[in-house]
Amino acid sequence: MTRPEQDTAGRAPAPVIQRLLGDPRVAQARLGKRIGRLPYFTRVESATGPITRMEGRDILNFGSNNYLGLANDPRVIAAAQEATARWGAGVTGSRLLNGNLALHEELEDALRRFYGRTGAMVFSTGYGANLGLMSSLLGRNDRAWVDEEMHASVLDGVWLARATMKRFGHNDPEHLLAQAKEDTASGLCVVEGVYSMRGDRAPLRRFLEVCRETRLALVVDEAHGLGTVGARGLGTVEEDGVVQDADFITITFSKSLGSCGGAIIGDKDQIEALRVLTRPFLFTAANTPASVAAALAALRILHEDPGLVAQLKERVRTLREALVARGLRPIPSDGPIVSVEVGADFDTLQAWRLLWNRGIYANPVIHPAVPAGHGLLRLSVMRTHEEQMVRTVADACADVFSDLQLSHEGRGKVAS
């Protein structure tokens, strides 16, 4: 008979566990759960589409990164099913040993050709791609010049390398230049093509000029740019004409490609060096066959039908115009992330809750993901959203701002 579940009892927890349980963020999460305002770890009970089953309800979903709707495409699903039938549920090993399937190499070949580069390297996650690249390129005496709104995967990779991290103002290449030209240490600069919180794009051409002047390698994370920016969906590197000039481009499969995994794209000799030096690549299990096949199928669909990007952009334009028509001021961008500043953290969580009560899921972004007092409502647009869905969410956002007495510029008036 199975023993009943129970916590460890009869002894005091070790000091490291006491510290874990006493972290203020843990207490904050527990409080949020008790009062019904924790907007995280929402239970999803269906495939992620414009209408998604969450917590027992059908919700209008504006919080997903399934930008092109390919996670639900029958061709992508069929590819994942066929790969599982052929290759099995998992490879049960790292690519260094028994996990290097022909399927992984086929995806790498497709990625390098898609970007017109000579090398590509597939990882189990996009996080792992950034972690691996930073920790392999950098050493103790190097500098990593990082945008102040950079994703955690890059920051963690720099820490793993034990390099010195230098932060420059968001999307401010002149601030980078002013700092880097006074520092002769070797290093790199990392920016995102499309930033995940505000949805704004980096001025890559100018960043490239600064990097060439200061002899820094340029790394561009196109996690949110792939499939959403550029005529063919290569990202901001395509829009700004630096596909061949960026030293490395990193991507994830978990957004526009509707799967799970990530990759580094660059020159063949550099990729081959990374392949034997990158610990997060060498010592983790390879992607499941289903995830690789799904990403490959989605990439082929995007390559064959770049009109999908234009369709997404049209939906984004409709939402932005609808918000502006209702007096709101989304942060300027033409990418799939449409963010409206709310203000204080409490106001932001309240706004999220009011949208949820109306059957709409959005992402609340609060400190430390953004500076204190600059909380955001983050709306993610999918190509498969219908026009009426877009107008519905714009109406709801306008009502929420009115209910909470928030200004149209996104500065909270409700006491926090």
Automatic annotation (TrEMBL):
Ranges annotated as spanning the membrane: none
UniProt cross-references to InterPro entries, sorted A to Z: Aminotrans_II_pyridoxalP_BS, Aminotransferase_I/II_large, AON_synthase_class-II, PyrdxlP-dep_Trfase, PyrdxlP-dep_Trfase_major, PyrdxlP-dep_Trfase_small
Pfam families referenced in this protein's UniProt entry, alphabetically: Aminotran_1_2 (PF00155)
Cofactor(s) demanded: pyridoxal 5'-phosphate
GO molecular-function term, one example from the UniProt record: pyridoxal phosphate binding
Gene3D superfamilies: Aspartate Aminotransferase, domain 1, Type I PLP-dependent aspartate aminotransferase-like (Major domain)
Domain (Aminotransferase class I/classII large): residue spans on this chain: 58-395
UniProt entry keywords in alphabetical sequence: Aminotransferase, Pyridoxal phosphate, Transferase
Superkingdom, taxonomy of origin: Bacteria
Family statement drawn from the similarity comment of this UniProt entry: Belongs to the class-II pyridoxal-phosphate-dependent aminotransferase family.
Name of this chain's protein: Aminotransferase class I/II-fold pyridoxal phosphate-dependent enzyme
